[in-house]
Write a structure and sequence with these properties.
The chain contains eleven helices and twelve strands. The chain is of the alpha/beta class. The strands form two sheets. A seven-stranded mixed sheet has the order 7-6-5-8-9-11-10, sandwiched between helices. A five-stranded parallel sheet has the order 2-1-3-4-12, with helices on both faces. It is elongated and about 65 Å long. The termini are far apart.
Length: 301
């Protein structure tokens, strides 16, 4: 009898995301097993229970997905799972906490496309600002952009200390230099926009971060991407399906273009499906994080 495919969905939080469960099922997995409130030191035992129970042929139809909200914890869990493998008993593992890796990868890849197509630029040397930069999507976005050569600033709405703490952790974990700052007022935001080439808006849904008045202070802006699909949108003037549409409210940066949340979300959806299918169909075990997600997003756009 042929073995069914199983994905074990590891989550340190109270619930597994219905979004991730739907995506894994639609990617082709037959059985989805959710685990909640998982501690880091439990991952190795869970992994070895998964690999030793199916035999060398069964592990090819077994995967693991790591969710949650904290991207640092997710990366630690991914590393713990990888270290617990005992070849040939080895399964594929994908980390995508809060969808942050696939969303950030899609965002950065979409903006990169517009930089190249409309401005003949790469990220190398660009000034990038990430509003909502201390959330899961924001920090993943900042790290990916910085790895591509952008001089990246992460912005926390409330706390400079929080921004600096996340910047230090990014340096320790991924070897990137991020600048941390806060911007609670329109004046603070305008100051940051004045020299920005690229703006990423990854703040909470339903909060307008950049209004038309603030956008008027953008003088060098080339591309702005917003992942907020809930009204009011994060950046005034960017429509949900915009993909390189003129950002008319940035009056002092007449060539600036915007990318909307549903345009980015379409890439994110296809990307997460593709990566989940890879964990199911790859002949050799794969371990997927935000770096693999960005490679995949680049191909999709």
């Amino acid at each position: 009898m042929s073995k069914r495919s199983i994905i074990h969905m590891i989550n340190p939080m109270k619930h597994n995301s219905p979004f991730d469960i739907n995506m894994a099922l639609d990617a082709g997995y037959d059985v989805l097993m959710p685990y909640t409130h998982v501690e880091l030191d439990e991952v190795a035992d869970l992994t070895q229970d998964a690999i030793f129970s199916r035999g060398p042929s069964g592990v090819k139809k077994t995967g693991m997905f790591i969710g949650g909200r904290d991207i640092g914890v997710a990366m630690d869990m991914l590393d713990a799972a990888k270290k617990a493998m005992v070849p040939p008993f080895e399964i594929s593992v994908m980390a995508d906490p809060s969808g942050a890796f696939t969303t950030a990868a899609a965002l950065v890849a979409c903006v990169e496309r517009e930089l190249k197509n409309k401005f003949d630029r790469t990220y190398e040397g660009t000034q990038a600002v990430v509003f909502g930069g201390t959330g899961p999507v924001g920090i993943a976005t900042a790290v990916i952009a910085a790895l591509q050569g952008a001089k990246t600033t992460i912005v926390d709405h409330f706390s400079l200390d929080t921004a600096l703490e996340f910047a230090e952790e990014a340096k320790r974990r991924y070897g990137v230099e991020l600048r941390g700052t806060t911007a609670a007022s329109d004046a603070d935001k305008a100051r940051l926009l004045a020299n920005a080439d690229v703006v990423f808006c990854t703040a909470k849904a339903g909060i307008q971060v950049l209004n038309g008045s603030v956008l008027e202070d953008a003088k060098k802006l080339k591309v702005a991407g917003d992942v907020n699909a809930v009204s009011p949108l994060g950046i005034e003037g960017i429509k949900l399906m915009d993909f390189g549409a003129p950002l008319e409210l940035a009056k002092n940066a007449p060539d600036a273009v915007g990318i909307g949340a549903l345009a980015i979300g379409d890439v994110k959806y296809k990307l997460q499906q593709a990566l989940l299918r890879e964990t199911l169909e790859s002949e050799k075990p794969v371990y997927l994080d935000f770096r693999n997600a960005f490679e995949g997003a680049r191909k999709l756009v």
